[in-house]
Hints:
By secondary structure, the protein is an alpha/beta fold. The chain has helices spanning 28-44, 57-61, 73-82, 95-98, 102-113, 135-145, 154-160, 164-174, 177-184, 201-204, 289-309; strands at 2-4, 16-20, 47-54, 87-92, 116-122, 148-152, 189-195, 209-213, 224-232, 235-244, 255-260, 271-281. The strands form two sheets. A six-stranded parallel beta sheet has the order 1-4-3-2-5-6, with helices on both faces. Strands 7-8-11-10-9-12 form a six-stranded antiparallel beta barrel. The structure holds flavin mononucleotide and adenosine-5'-diphosphate.
Amino acid sequence: MKTFSSISNFESDKRVVATLGTFDGVHIGHQMIIKKLVDSAKATGGESLVLTFFPHPRMVLKQDNSIRLLNTIEEKKELLKGLGLDNLVIQKFDYEFSQHTAEEFVKKVLVDQFNISKIIIGYDHRFGKNRTADINDLKAFGEKYGFEVEEISAQEIDHVSISSTKIRTALEEVGDMTLANEFLGYEYYFSGVVVHGKKLGRTLGFPTANIVVDEDYKLIPKNGVYVVESELNGELVKGMMSVGINPTFADHPYTIEVNYLDWNGDLYDQKLKVRILDRIRDELKFSGLDELVAKLKDDERVTREFFSAYERKVVPSDR
Ligand SMILES: Cc1cc2nc3c(=O)[nH]c(=O)nc-3n(C[C@H](O)[C@H](O)[C@H](O)COP(=O)(O)O)c2cc1C
Ligand SMILES: Nc1ncnc2c1ncn2[C@@H]1O[C@H](COP(=O)(O)OP(=O)(O)O)[C@@H](O)[C@H]1O
């Protein structure tokens, strides 16, 4: 897969089958669209292309920096590459770009720059300045400029009834990993670097790798305790993760910490990828360390039980 950092950098001598959107999460609804795109490009001897925008239009137009996204740009690249996409164009979405009228966008970008033979798009897609144009306008432009428009119907989209917003809400408000992972079609994951903590974990018999996530816009599920898995030095390792402020300790900062089961070694400064499989419980405030350690032992038991019954319904992202 080739990645382009702007529309104007794109070049290809083949005609292109394109789609556009944010594709946050690259969930199974998105995967269906990308599959159509890749198949259609193969069938016509052309190349597939996804045009995506970064930062998220909501961050720019509504100046809403509180929005957390399911994927970092790096993750999106990885997921789209795995689906066999030929070209990913990441256009900086800024005020200037948002001012393109629908026809300017179609002519300058889709026709002159991408030379599309076809665009595949959802029935409810709106585009251009102030989102004024819809699929019927796009079809009219298609006739004018000579490209096909393949509409993804309401039935096809509603059939899966999945949206990035639903997944974000499930993770942020409930911590519902089962629903999120089912909708994503892969196990939700994040990456980050292991930093030094308070060195308390080891004294409790549960050392925890404290992870600082790569991008601050990456959505981390609601505070609580989770079953996770990582590859450590090439070995698949089970773990339990605590996300939150650890209320047992006064003024504890927000941390993301993983205790890996049956594993011992130094993880400082390593970059880890953590896949989140299930939620165990909310964070609790304990009366003392004994009570905390008793609960950690219980969490460990729950984690082991989870794995002994776990049947993978979805593929891990990197396999
Ligand atoms: C699986 C797991 C669950 C945890 N649950 C809680 C909790 O409910 N309440 C709490 O105050 N701390 C909780 N902790 C955090 C520990 O109390 C402790 O702060 C941490 O393991 C030590 O941090 P350190 O790496 O900075 O030494 C949990 C830790 C783990 C690994
Ligand atoms: N099973 C394990 N799970 C997590 N980290 C471990 C494990 N065994 C050893 N470690 C190491 O111990 C560190 C965590 O120990 P801890 O006492 O909690 O220190 P810190 O407060 O710096 O995180 C990890 O960063 C890692 O280098």
